[in-house]
């Protein structure tokens, strides 16, 4: 049986972080699928879940810092797998790790990750995910207890297990990401990853050797103290999801929580930072 969707084509200026913020707000409003493009994003919601005031609480539409226009149309049926398969090419990271779909040819790399990303964030194509994969590749995670916060597709947790980390918690507040991570964890035969749906409140009483958090800047600024409380002595915190110009405020917040800056990766103005717990 086909499902009828309402589709919106949003043009966003500037595209970043505008598109990222818009997707987050639309997700909370009930939109379930997104396809980004050079001008912004196409967003889709089932017709049964749509109503006339669906965009009334999308705050970025009233933010003078962004210019956003949109068109709406009714779509009889959307084949989501076909949509992302059109654009999803396999990637390799530093010649050691590949992220691919099941229909791609198996590459000759040490870590071969197979995912069905659907509309979840985290395929390795985005700069932040790519750099976080690099950080994990460059870190000894064997037998370390790891947290992947804002896990998206679960790809970072999966690479951590492939490199010997255990046990691993993967958490995302978005139900779609939670379900997608469960699928991808199973697809890669991971035995040591537990996936949870929720936010930083799930961390009470937990301790980790390594925390990976690829989320947006404002959430990180709010949650960094909690991450610090959850890190074991000399534990490592990897942060991404923000721009070069955000480094000072991120570093200041980490320093207040007794976290010491240690390393930085940068790609197209996106950054991924490494901090070490001094407590």
Keywords:
Rossmann fold; 279 residues; 2 domains; Alpha-Beta Plaits; single chain; alpha/beta
Short description:
The chain is α/β, with parallel strands linked by helices and 279 residues long. The protein has helices spanning 15-29, 80-87, 127-137, 155-162, 175-187, 217-230, 247-256; strands at 5-13, 33-36, 40-46, 67-75, 91-93, 97-100, 111-114, 146-149, 168-172, 193-197, 208-214, 231-243, 259-267, 270-277.
Strand-helix topology:
Blueprint: E1 5-13, H1 15-29, E2 33-36, E3 40-46, E4 67-75, H2 80-87, E5 91-93, E6 97-100, E7 111-114, H3 127-137, E8 146-149, H4 155-162, E9 168-172, H5 175-187, E10 193-197, E11 208-214, H6 217-230, E12 231-243, H7 247-256, E13 259-267, E14 270-277
Parallel strand pairs: 6-7, 8-9, 8-11, 9-10, 11-12
Antiparallel strand pairs: 1-3, 1-4, 2-3, 5-6, 12-14, 13-14
């Amino acid at each position: 049986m086909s499902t009828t969707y309402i589709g919106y084509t949003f043009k966003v200026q500037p595209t970043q972080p505008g598109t990222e913020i818009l997707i987050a707000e639309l997700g909370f409003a009930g939109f379930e699928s997104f396809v980004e493009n050079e001008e912004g994003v196409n967003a889709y919601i089932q017709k049964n879940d749509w109503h006339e005031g669906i965009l009334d609480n999308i705050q970025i539409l009233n933010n003078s810092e962004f210019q956003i226009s949109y068109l709406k149309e009714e779509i009889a049926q959307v084949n989501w797998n076909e949509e992302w398969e059109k654009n999803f090419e396999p990637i390799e990271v530093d010649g050691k790790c590949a992220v691919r779909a099941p229909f791609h040819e198996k590459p000759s790399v040490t870590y071969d990750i197979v995912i069905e990303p659907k509309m979840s964030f985290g395929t390795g194509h985005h700069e932040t995910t790519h750099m976080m994969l690099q950080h994990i590749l460059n870190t000894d995670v064997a037998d370390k207890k790891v947290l992947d916060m804002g896990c998206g597709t679960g790809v970072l947790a999966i690479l951590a297990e492939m490199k010997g980390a255990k046990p691993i918690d993967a958490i995302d507040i978005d139900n779609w990401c939670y379900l997608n991570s469960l699928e991808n964890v199973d697809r890669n035969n991971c035995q040591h990853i537990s996936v949870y749906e929720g936010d930083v409140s799930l961390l009470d009483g937990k301790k980790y050797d390594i925390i990976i958090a690829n989320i947006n800047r404002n959430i990180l600024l709010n949650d960094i103290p909690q991450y610090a409380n959850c890190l074991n002595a000399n534990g490592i915190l990897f942060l991404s999801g923000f721009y070069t110009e955000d480094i000072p405020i991120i570093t200041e917040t980490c320093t207040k929580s007794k976290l010491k800056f240690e390393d930085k990766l940068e790609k197209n103005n996106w950054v991924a930072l490494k901090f070490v717990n001094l407590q």
